[in-house]
Amino acid sequence: MVGRILESEADVAEGAAWLAAHHPRFAHALEQTGPLPLRRKPDGFETLLSAIVSQQVSVAAANAIWARLEGAGLTTRAAVATAEEEALRAAGLSRQKVRYAVALAQSPVDFAALRAMPEDQAVAHLTEVPGIGRWTAEIYLMFALGRADVFAPADLALQEAARMLFDLPDRPREAPLRRMAEEWRPWRSVAAVALWAYYRVAKEREGIR
Asked: What would be the CATH architecture of the domain defined by 9-39+149-203?
């Protein structure tokens, strides 16, 4: 089953209220952050390409690269599929990410079909494409498909926010954080948004695009 879809800020507020009622540390976080944003993006090629651009670089660097890709008209499937490597490199993509971007543009990913796939099936479908790992797939499910109960524990900002919020001795790695997030079902995506918002307040910088 697909489950709940986050379609409005009211949906996010419902999830935030549930988290605050069930987990006091989220209540504390929400006191610091205020109301949480929806963070929805259109589903499709551009948003998934944007997630690839954001892999392992700062938010500022990803924003700069994406702006150059937009300026060069290199954010559509057709444009990337036929682009010269030099043009993609000139926009700021590494050679590795050029391969990933072209592989995505030439892949058979069915973006419409993804909307009806359960989380595990959607993640499996996306990660068949070179360069798309579980983090990228989970980010896409949260932001583009609006899934209310997805989490991306490999995200470094989420790990650091969890360390701060829950007063952990060390930043939790992916597997422990994934287990920890099980307690936040059925609102794990809202928990992620809350942690990113808490990270922004605590660090005074964005942790996710």
From this structure: Orthogonal Bundle (1.10)
For the stretch 99-118, pLDDT in tens is 999 999 999 999 999 999 99
Query: Where are the domains positioned within the chain?
Result: 9-39+149-203, 45-143
Class of domain 45-143: mainly alpha
pLDDT tens digit string along 192-209?
999 999 999 999 999 999
pTM for this model (two decimals): 0.95
- Running along the chain, 209 residues long, what does each successive block of 10 average in pLDDT? 94 98 98 97 97 94 97 98 97 97 96 96 97 97 98 98 98 98 98 98 94
Residue positions counted in the chain: 209
Alpha helix segments (H runs only) across 91-206: 95-105, 111-114, 119-126, 134-143, 156-165, 174-181, 188-203
Q: Which of 136, 114, 115, 141 is nearest to 125 (CA)?
A: 114
Cβ-based neighbour number of residue 23 at 10 Å: 17
